[in-house]
Design a protein that fits this description.
Blueprint (H helix, E strand, L loop, with lengths): L8 E7 L2 E6 L11 E7 L2 E8 L7 H5 L19 H16 L5 H29 L4 H21 L8 E2 L2 E2 L7 H24 L2 H7 L7 H6 L4 H5 L7 H4 L20 H22 L21 E8 L4 E8 L7 E5 L1 H7 L1 H5 L7 H6 L5 H5 L1
Antiparallel strand pairs: 1-2, 2-3, 3-4, 5-6, 7-8, 8-9
Length: 377
C-alpha cells in the first residue's frame, strides 16, 4: 500500500545540542523505501538529508539491452501510478525517431487512458494524504471512485496497476466493448461524490490548519529546484506540458492549467483536487467522440531508429517525465536517460521544511506525492 507513512522514525542520536533522527528505512524489500536524516533543534527542523538508492534497479542500464518495444514497459515499474503516461512518453520517442504516424483513434484512446490514470493517481494520493494527517474515512471514499477506474483498466488492458497497453504506433488492442459505458458511469459518480471530498477534507478546519502556511515553496525556488507538476503549479509556475507542448489530442480539447499562488501544502492539495475535475472535463469531451479506424499503425516487427539523439516529454500525475535516447541505428538503444519528476521535487524538501516543526513534515512531504521507485530507478 502506498502511503507517506512508509517512512517511520526509528533511531535517534544526540550531537552537540542538536538531535539527529533517522526517518526510515524499513526492510529494503519494501517498495518506496526512503531514508531521511533530520537534524532537529528542539522540535524545529534545521536540516533534512534524503538518502536514496534502497530500491535502485539499474533500469536505465537494463533498457540498453532491451528492444525499442520492450524497454517501454520497464517504466511501468518506476512511477507505477502513472504507468500509462510513462509508457506513452517512451512510445512517443520511438515514433518520433522513426516518424511513425499514429492513427487518430489511438491518440484519443491514449489521452482517455492518461486522464483516467491521472485521476486514479490523485485519488490514491488524496486518500493516503488525509489518512497520514489523521483522517481515515476519506481513504475509503477516494478508493471507491478509484476502484471504478482500475476495473475499467483491467477490462481493456488486463491489469489494474502496471498496464502494458501502449505500443509504438498506437495501442496494443482495441477498447473493451463496455469501456464507454463504464467511463460514463464513473464520470457520473465522480461528479456527484466530489462534494464529499470537500466536506470531509477540503473544508475541514483541522485539515486546513495542518496545511495552510506549511511547507511554503516560492515560485522562484520551485523553478530553481526544477520542480514540475502540481508541486510547481502550487507555487504559480506555468509548467503543464499538455499546454506548453501539446501532444496527442490535447490541443483539440478545452481544459485549464490549474495554478495556485500560495505555494504551501494546501495550495498543492488544491491543485490536485482541481486537476481531477479538469481530467473529467477532458474525458467528457472525448468519450462520445472516439473516432473509428485503426487503433495501431502498421510497423515493422523489429524497430531500428536512425542514428541520433531523441527527447520527448509528457505530463504525468507528478510532473514532467522525459525520455532521452541515443541511438546508434541498432535494435536496442545505445543510451537511455529518464527525467523523473519525483527526483527534482524531492530535492526541494529540505528547503521547504527548514525552520518548520517536525509535526509539519508529514504535510510537507505528503504534498510532494513521492513515488520512490520513480526516483531511485
Amino acid at each position: 500500500m502506498y502511503s507517506q507513512t512508509e517512512v517511520i522514525c526509528d533511531t535517534t542520536t544526540d550531537t552537540g545540542g542538536e538531535l539527529v533522527i533517522n526517518v526510515g528505512p524499513q526492510h529494503p524489500a519494501t517498495h518506496g523505501v526512503l531514508h531521511l536524516v533530520i537534524t532537529l533543534e528542539g522540535e524545529t527542523i534545521r536540516k533534512i538529508e534524503p538518502h536514496l538508492g534502497y530500491i535502485h534497479r539499474s533500469i536505465e542500464k537494463m533498457c540498453e539491452s532491451l528492444s525499442y518495444r520492450q524497454f517501454i514497459y520497464v517504466t511501468s515499474r518506476m512511477d507505477y501510478l502513472s504507468s500509462h503516461i510513462n509508457n506513452l512518453c517512451c512510445a512517443h520517442n520511438t515514433e518520433k525517431s522513426l516518424q511513425i504516424e499514429v492513427p487518430q483513434r489511438a491518440k484519443v484512446i491514449r489521452v482517455l487512458m492518461s486522464e483516467l490514470t491521472r485521476i486514479a493517481s490523485h485519488e490514491l494520493w488524496l486518500g493516503a494524504m488525509a489518512m497520514d494527517l489523521g483522517a481515515f474515512t476519506p481513504f475509503f471514499y477516494a478508493f471507491r471512485e478509484r476502484e471504478m477506474i482500475t476495473e475499467i483498466m483491467e477490462d481493456t488492458c488486463g491489469a489494474r496497476l502496471t498496464m502494458n497497453y501502449i505500443v509504438p504506433g498506437g495501442v496494443m488492442y482495441d477498447l473493451h466493448p463496455d469501456f464507454v459505458t463504464k467511463v460514463k458511469a464513473f464520470v457520473k459518480q465522480f461528479k456527484t461524490k466530489v462534494t464529499e471530498y470537500e466536506d470531509l477534507v477540503t473544508n475541514n478546519v483541522i485539515f486546513q490548519n495542518r496545511m495552510k502556511g506549511v511547507g511554503v515553496l516560492s515560485k522562484e525556488d520551485a523553478i530553481s529546484y526544477g520542480c514540475t507538476g502540481p508541486v510547481a503549479r502550487g507555487s504559480g509556475v506555468h509548467c503543464d506540458i499538455r499546454k506548453i507542448y501539446p501532444y496527442e489530442v490535447y490541443d483539440a480539447v478545452e481544459f485549464d492549467e490549474v495554478l495556485e499562488t500560495a505555494g504551501d501544502s494546501f495550495a498543492r492539495y488544491m491543485v490536485r483536487v482541481r486537476e481531477m475535475n479538469q481530467s473529467v472535463r477532458i474525458i467528457e469531451q472525448l468519450i462520445d467522440n472516439i473516432p473509428d479506424g485503426d487503433f495501431q499503425a502498421k510497423t515493422k516487427a523489429v524497430l531500428k531508429p536512425p542514428k541520433g539523439e531523441f527527447y520527448t516529454r509528457v505530463e504525468t500525475a507528478r510532473g514532467e517525465f522525459g525520455v532521452y535516447i541515443v541511438s546508434e541505428g541498432g535494435t536496442t538503444p545505445y543510451r537511455i536517460k529518464f527525467r523523473s519528476p519525483g527526483f527534482s521535487n524531492l530535492s526541494a524538501l529540505g528547503h521547504m521544511a527548514k525552520g518548520s516543526k517536525i509535526g509539519d513534515l508529514m504535510a510537507t512531504m505528503g504534498t510532494l506525492d513521492l513515488v520512490i521507485p520513480d526516483i531511485d530507478r
